[in-house]
Write a structure and sequence with these properties.
Elements (H helix, E strand, L loop, with lengths): L5 E5 L4 H12 L3 E6 L10 E5 L5 H15 L4 E4 L14 H28 L3 E6 L3 H4 L5 H21 L4 E7 L13 H8 L10 H12 L10 E3 L5
Parallel strand pairs: 1-2, 1-4, 2-3, 4-5, 5-6, 6-7
Helix pairs in contact: 2-3, 3-5
């Protein structure tokens, strides 16, 4: 069996997911990534799957292929997500369904299928993505915050359900990072959010990878069910 860590990351076509994939490739991991569209980048130790994480058949096929090729999964990083700022009175049902499908259902499906493989080897690290919009109760992000609050709650319950299999489940809650996800958000709204942080700046990709590195460490085997929000948000 190969010695490289096997790491599955969702949403790796661009943005934070792409940066995380490249971060762990530099650390010598074998990275499996996925997104709705094909990736425009490649690496000898990177394999990309094109599909929707809210599609149960796609997720099952992805994990089946991963199991067949690598026989195990060490780390799962559930980065994929979508956001939209809308007042609740102006939020269409189709947008609610889309965010819930991707942000919550997709995360759940990947956790469930990945845990089945991790449990066989009595080891695994799962890191899910929530957001500072949850503790800050941001106006205009009712649905997005609700889906990410669900992810945080899911992480806490899964930590208990999977702890006996040697699997830890934690979450990271980034502050705004300059990616496509926030490009359409008005500048005054971003400034208002940043001013609610103890450290009033945009997050960096290295801020996020630092927290994930901590959760993945061998020495972090006793840390589970935790959420770390960035920027001094409590």
């Amino acid at each position: 069996m190969e010695n490289k860590s096997i790491t599955l990351i969702s949403g790796t076509r661009k943005g934070i997911g792409k940066a995380l994939a490249q971060h762990y490739l530099k650390q010598g991991h074998r990275v499996i990534g996925c997104s709705r569209r094909a990736a425009d980048w490649s690496h000898p130790n990177y394999c990309h799957y094109e599909g929707d994480i809210a599609d149960e058949s796609f997720v099952k096929t992805l994990l089946f292929e991963l199991r067949k090729k690598h026989h195990r999964l060490d780390y799962l990083i559930n980065n994929a997500g979508i956001a939209s700022m809308n007042h609740c009175l102006l939020t269409p049902t189709r947008l609610v369904e889309r965010m819930m499908q991707t942000n919550f259902l997709g995360t759940f499906l990947l956790c469930r299928e990945a845990a089945k493989l991790m449990a066989k080897h009595q080891f695994g690290r799962i890191v899910n993505f929530t957001t500072v919009a949850v503790p800050l109760h941001l106006e205009g992000e009712a649905v997005y915050a609700a889906t990410k609050a669900a992810v945080m709650s899911l992480s806490q319950v899964l930590a208990k359900e999977l702890g006996g299999y040697g699997i830890t489940v934690n979450a990271v809650g980034p502050t705004p990072v300059k990616t496509d996800l926030i490009r359409a958000v008005p500048e005054e709204k971003i400034d208002k959010l940043l001013n609610q942080q103890a450290i009033k700046r945009f997050g960096k990709l290295s801020d996020i990878s630092n927290v994930i590195d901590f959760f993945l460490k061998k020495e972090s085997a006793f840390i589970t069910g935790q959420t770390i929000f960035l920027g001094g948000v409590v």
